[in-house]
Every structure is written in C-alpha cells, then in structure tokens.
Design a protein that fits this description.
The structure holds three protein chains of three kinds. Chain B is mainly alpha-helical. Chain B contains four helices and no strands. The model of chain B has no long low-confidence stretch (mean pLDDT about 90). Chain C is mainly alpha-helical. Helix content of chain C is about 65%, strand content about 5%. In chain C, helix 2 runs antiparallel to helix 3 and helix 3 packs antiparallel against helix 4. Classes of the chains: A mainly alpha, B mainly alpha, C mainly alpha.
Chain lengths: ~90, ~150, ~130
Amino acid sequence: MKIFQLLIVLLTGGLLIYGMEDLPGWGDPSSPPSIHVSPRYIEKTVEETGTPNMVTSVLADYRSYDTLGEATVIFTAGVACLLLLRKDAP
Amino acid sequence: MIVQYENIIIKTISRILIPFIQIYALYVIMHGHYSPGGGFQGGVILGASFILLVLAFGAEASQKRISLKKLTVLASLGLLIFSGIGLVALLMGGNYLDYGKLPLPLESIPKIRAMGILGIEIGVGIGVMAIMITIFLAIASYETEGKND
Amino acid sequence: MIDYVVSKSNYWIYVVLMMIGFYAMISKKNLIRKLIGLNIFQTAVILFFISTGVKKGATIPIAFHEKGEIIRAIEALQYTNPLPHVLMLTAIVVMISTTGVALSIVIKIYDAYKTIEEDEIPDKEE
C-alpha cells in the first residue's frame, strides 16, 4: 500500500477544499469572472465584429494572438510526433 | 501497425458515412459565426472522418488520399493562412491581426471583421485536421525495430 | 450546512476528480497509467474553468439573431460568460496534442528498454 502518496493526495485535496470557501457559488451572476471583463465582450461583440457567436469572436478577434500561439503549439506537437516516430527521421 | 480486417459491413458503412461526416464538419467550420462551432471543432470532426477512413480501409489503401507528406504541407498551410491574414492587416496599416484594415469590398467595418474571422477559422480548421491525422498516423503506423533481446 | 455543500457541489466533484488523477500520476509505475492520470487531472481543471462561467437563468453565449441581424437588445446577464469557453476550447486541443507527444515518447522508451514500468528501466541501463 502506498501510504505516502495517499497522504500527499489527501493533503492536497484538503487544502483545495479549504480554499473552496472563498469561491463563488454555483451559477452566481455576480461572481468575479462574470463582472470584470466578459460584460464588455458580451455587449460589444455584435456591434464591433458582426458575429453573434461570442465564443468565435473572442477566440478569433479579441484574443486572436492567443489563438495563434495555440495553433503554433499544436503544430509543434505534430512535428515533434513525426520527428520522434518516422523511420527516415534525421 | 494497422492490421486490416476484411469486413464488408465496416467498409460499406464507413463508405456511406464518411461524406456526411465531412459535409457536417465543413458546415461546423463555415457556420461558426451563427451557431456553436468554429475552426477547432470542425477541424477535429474532419480529422475524425479521415481517421475512420484509415481504420476501415488500412493505411496502405488510403495512401493516395492522405499521406504524411501531404499532411505536413496542409498543417503548414493552415498556420500560414492564419499568420498571413495577420500580416496583410499589418501591411495595410493596422495592427497585427487587426481585421478592420483588410482590403475587402464590404461596406462596413464589422462585416470586414467577420470575414477576417472566417479566414482565421478556415486556417485553424485545416491545421487542426492535418495535425490530428498526423499524430494518429505517426503513432499507429510505427513499427518497432526488430531488436528482440 | 447542507445548503453550503449543495451551493459548492461542483467544486467537490472537481476536487475528487483531481485527487484521482493526482494519485494515479504519483503512485502508478506504468507510464501509460501515469498518462491516464494526467488526462483525468486536466479534465478536472477544464471542468473547473467551465463552471466559473455559469450564470443562473442565462443561455449559451450566442446573441439572438435572425438572418444576421440582432432581434433583441443584449444584456450581459442573459448570456453565460464566453471567456472560460474560449480558453478551455484551446486547452482541450492542446491537451490532445500533448497526449500525442507523450505517447510517442513512451513508444520510444519501449523501443529502447523493452519495458514501460518505471522501476524496471534503471535495471536495463548499461
């Protein structure tokens, strides 16, 4: 039995449950993530980008630089897979 | 190594299903402005259809439709479309990835931005599709070297 | 007390999921099982982020529209928060690619040592 690992896991879980006290409840409309940046995105997205789907407009317009980084990450992952596993790899 | 089974049911069903999956994937990419969808989701569905093709017909038989060489070109093309649109906006006098400055014959700025978003989605979709199939093919068609000690 | 637990029930689920994944990551010796633990851990983090965007009585973050035109005024309280959806959408794709790279590395380890048990690998080094 792996007592040591189990203790570490229980300690981490206990700390997270202790820290849970300060988090907003389920579906709270006035929680911090819902009142800080996102109202600006929700209210201005159609006016500024002409796209009713807010997820698309935030993904590809407001935060497109972030998306470029993510696309680069998955491109690098694919190239790394090829370089690791191809028979004629250099 | 993909072992191929001669199963008439799997082959027939996938031959019927694959075009519909691909049409649906293209719909998810192109209709991402007005309904749930977009480049990442549609790209993954499109990749899954090609993975189904490889699973049903084997890597050798589907070699002329998808090969690793074509897939690397497609993956690079997806990223090139993405960063190219950003670069065009930069050359037209805006910021990088500022679609409002794209040279498109549309009357208002929001419509131009919507077209810029569509271009980004297409690039991301092509890239994600190519990378998904690349990872699958690279892992599935790998053969261990014969060092049995 | 029971109201408190119910109002935070989502976080309890994520903490339990995270503990399962974390335990698999640090106690299993098989590399594939470690990877499965890593995926469970990432799923817990993704579910946590998605749940921060929920608002009671709100609909999906797509503005009501008809033929591309808005048919009713947009208020922030009507729509769920789109920001966690965006961040986790990209995080899921990155999770798939990192899993692919990890599987390739496990295959190369198996090629070199003929085992994927972590405690047997040092014996095979020469």
